[in-house]
C-alpha cells in the first residue's frame, strides 16, 4: 500500500512526504525572530467567543551572538543556543540528511474529555480510521465514550451518511476525525449533533488550513501542527470560550485549557522555533490568497492524482469511496503487489521517498 500525503501549505511541493513543511522556508541570517502567537480571542458571528490556544512542548532557542546584528538574550525561559549549532541547523534545514525532514495531537485525545466531561458523561465517537479509534480508546479513561459508527469492517474506506448516525441522547459531544491521515477518508461536510447542547469536536490534524472551516460549528477543533502548518511539537486548539474552565480535577496542568488561555499560551517554555515556523506558514497561506485559494489548489492537485489512479485501467487502485476521498492523503495499491517494490525504487529515482504506506491500511 502506498500513500501520497499532500501538504496544503506547500502547494508547489505537493508530492513530497507528509511532514514537509520545513523545506520551503529559510531561516533569516541565523537569527530567530520571535513572534509568539498568543492566545487569541475572537468574536464569532453568533456572539460566542473562541480561543485559539497554541499548545507547546518545551524546547530551547533564541539568539545571541558575536555577530553585530544579533542581540544578547537574557530571558529566563528559552536560552541561547551556541552559534555554531544554529548555523549548522540553518544549513541543514532545507534538506536534513537528504530526507526533506520536518507530536502533540495525541495529547488532545485525553485533553478533550478531561476538559469537557465528568467521568460519567457519555460522548459519541464516529470512528472512520485509526486516528479516530485511538481518540476513542483514550477517551475511555476519562468518560464513557460510545462508538456510534465504525468503518472498520469496510477497512475504513467510508464516511457514514449523517442520518445513519444513531447519536446518544444527552451525549456531551460528538467526536470526528476530519481527515484520516492513514486511510485517506475526509469529511466533506460536518454532522450536526442531535442534542441542543451536544458539542461537535474535530481532530483536524491532517487537513487544518487546507480549506476554509466555519469554526462556529465546533466546540473544539484541534490539530497537530506537523502536517500543514509547522514542525511537530506545536498543537493548535480552537475552543469556544465558554467551554474553558471545567476541567476534571485530575487534569494535568499542561492539558488544562484554562491554564493555557489564562497564560496566553505561555504557561510553560514555548517551542519558539516551532511557533516561528507556524507564523511563516500562516503568512505564506495569506500570501497565496487565503484558505479558499489554497482549497482550489488542493482540489486541482487531488484531481490530477485521483484521475491518474482511476484512469490507469486498474494498474493503480484507490480503495476509498469516491465522494469522501481525502485531498490530503491519497492511499493507493498496485494491482500486482509484486510491482510495489519496483514502484518504490523507481519513485526514489525521481526523488519521491517515503511512499510506502503502512500495514495499518490492511486493518
Ligand atoms: C489525524 C491525526 N490525529 C492525530 C495525530 C497524532 O498527532 P501527534 O503525532 O502530533 O500526537 C495524527 C498524526 O499524524 C494524525 O494524523
TrEMBL record:
Its cofactor is pyridoxal 5'-phosphate. Signal peptide: none annotated. The keyword Cytoplasm does not apply. One of its GO terms (cellular component) is chloroplast stroma. Pathway: Amino-acid biosynthesis; L-serine biosynthesis; L-serine from 3-phospho-D-glycerate: step 2/3. GO terms for molecular function: O-phospho-L-serine:2-oxoglutarate aminotransferase activity; pyridoxal phosphate binding. The keyword Cytoplasm does not apply. Residues 104-347 form the Aminotransferase class V domain. It catalyses: O-phospho-L-serine + 2-oxoglutarate = 3-phosphooxypyruvate + L-glutamate. Keywords: Amino-acid biosynthesis, Aminotransferase, Pyridoxal phosphate, Serine biosynthesis, Transferase. Pfam families: Aminotran_5. PROSITE patterns: AA_TRANSFER_CLASS_5. NCBIfam families: PRK05355.1. Belongs to the class-V pyridoxal-phosphate-dependent aminotransferase family. SerC subfamily. HAMAP family: SerC_aminotrans_5. This is phosphoserine transaminase. It comes from Sesamum angolense.
